[in-house]
Each structure stands twice: as C-alpha cells, then as structure tokens.
Specification:
Layout (H helix, E strand, L loop, with lengths): L11 H15 L5 H5 L6 H17 L2 H24 L5 H14 L2 H4 L7 H16 L17 H13 L8 H20 L3 H21 L4 H25 L9 H14 L2
Helix pairs in contact: 3-4, 8-10, 9-10, 11-12
C-alpha cells in the first residue's frame, strides 16, 4: 500500500529518538568504537554508503534502497554530533542551513524569478552559489569541483559547468569525430611505445567518451556499471563452463572462452 502524505511525514519525535539513540552510542558506557571516531576516521564511510545506495538503486531493490538511505543519513548525524561535541556546529545548524539554501536557490519557486526549463534552473543555481560564496572574477567555475571526487563524476561535472557558459559541442556528432581523433592519437602513441603519450591519450579518450555520454543524456557512471554487470554475468558463464568441463580457467584457450562469451551474447533477449 502506498503511504499517504501524512503517513510518510517524519515527525520530530521520531527524528529526535534517532538522534538520541546515536547519542547513547557515543556517550560513556555506550559503544567504544562510535565514541572513538572523529571526522577524519569516518570520512570515507559516507562515500562507501553512497556507492552502496547506487547499487541498490541500480538493482531496483526498494527495501535495500531504504536501508542504504538510512546508512547515509547515519553519516550526517554522526558528523553533526562529532561537530557539536567539538563546538563546531550542530545538527540543527545543518538542517537550518540546508533549508535556507533550498529557498535561496529556488527563487523561481519561492521568489519572483522565472525558470521554465531544467537548464535555466541549473544556470540560476550556479549563479546563486557563486554569489553565496562571494566568488570573484578571478575564480574559475571549475573551482567548486572537489579534487577528491572520483574522476568519472568530476569529468562530467567539469563538462557540464563549461557547457552552462556556452563552451560545448553543438551535438554528439562533434564528439564522435573527437573520439576518432583521440583513438588515432592513442594508436600512434602505442606504435611509438611512448608510455607518457599512451597515458595522456587514454585520458583524453576517456574524457571524450564521458562528454559523448553527457551529450546523449546518458549517465556515464550508470552506463559503465551496466557494462560491468554484463561482463560479470558473462564471465561467470565461462567459469561455470570450465567447472563443467573439469578444467581450470587457465587451462582453457582464448578460443574456448570466446565461444562461450559469444554464445552468452546470442542468448540475450
């Protein structure tokens, strides 16, 4: 049964109970591990939980997604309580700051501005973000992209940021031509056994592939994950077939493996 709007609204007692539960874990007599953590020691946990949420979303498993959202929420509470104990900020500050930001960055909803397309909203969002941070003319629109972000995601964000100020291909056909150019340059670097050149050209090729995905409205992360899932499924068939033939994988020829691989592709609907 789909919950009503009233049923799905979290009341403050439920949230307070959740926060109190975690306060007990960090208090004397609670959990020694939770009490010993600081911002740095759990910094990677939020990233890990976010990736686990991505897996749940990709699988379409709603109960798993609900669980991972809870784990991600836990990281917000964890960092906020650590910050409170250090006198930095509180969970209330986090929530109030987020509410203020959402109102400020949606003037087309809460103010008198107009934005009728997602692109206009995105442009307004970036302009308002620069205004909030007091950005100067010497700062780059790329400065807000974290250097610690995974390269695939960061590349897409860089390209999107450049696109919002008009630095972009008209359509995907231009990127396809760029891909051909990058492949030719990679082939040349390989033929010359230029290790530095090979690394550079592979980077350029990957960057162009991500650009192509963006212009085709495809999430490159999701596309790559789909291909990885497909590879895992097909390679497992090779492993099972090797076991059926009572052979170790390294005893099979590449021709035998390729035949199984191609057969698995033919069986796909």
């Amino acid at each position: 049964m789909i919950p009503t709007r009233r049923e799905e609204t979290l009341n403050m007692k439920e949230f307070d109970d959740l926060v109190h539960l975690f306060e007990v874990l960090r208090a004397p007599g609670g959990c020694p591990w939770d009490a010993a953590q600081d911002h740095e020691s759990i910094a990677g946990c939020a990233v890990e939980e976010a990736y686990e949420l991505l897996d749940a979303i990709a699988s379409g498993d709603a109960p798993h997604m609900r669980e991972e959202l809870g784990d991600l929420l836990l990281q917000v509470i964890f960092h906020s309580l650590i910050a409170r104990d250090k006198g930095e900020f509180t969970l209330k500050d986090v929530i109030e700051g987020l509410s203020a930001k959402l109102v400020h960055r949606h003037p087309h909803v809460f103010g008198g501005a107009e934005a009728s397309t997602p692109m206009e909203v995105a442009r307004n969002w970036e302009a308002l973000k620069k205004e909030e941070k007091g950005a100067t003319a010497t700062e780059s629109i790329l400065d807000g992209i974290p250097r610690s972000m995974c390269a695939l995601m960061a590349a897409r964000k860089m390209q999107s940021a450049a696109s919002r100020v008009g630095f972009d291909w008209e359509d995907a056909s231009g990127v396809i031509e760029k891909l051909r150019e990058e492949i030719a340059e990679l082939e040349d670097a390989i033929s010359r056994q230029d290790r530095a050149g090979i690394k550079e050209e592979i980077g350029d090729l990957l960057f162009s592939v991500i650009n192509c995905a963006r212009l085709c409205s495809v999430d490159p992360e999701a596309a790559l994950r789909s291909s990885m899932s497909k590879f895992r499924e097909r390679f497992r068939l090779i492993e099972r077939e090797a076991a059926r033939r009572k052979k170790a994988l390294d005893e099979m020829t590449i021709q035998e493996m390729d035949e199984i691989w191609e057969a698995s592709k033919a069986r796909r609907p």
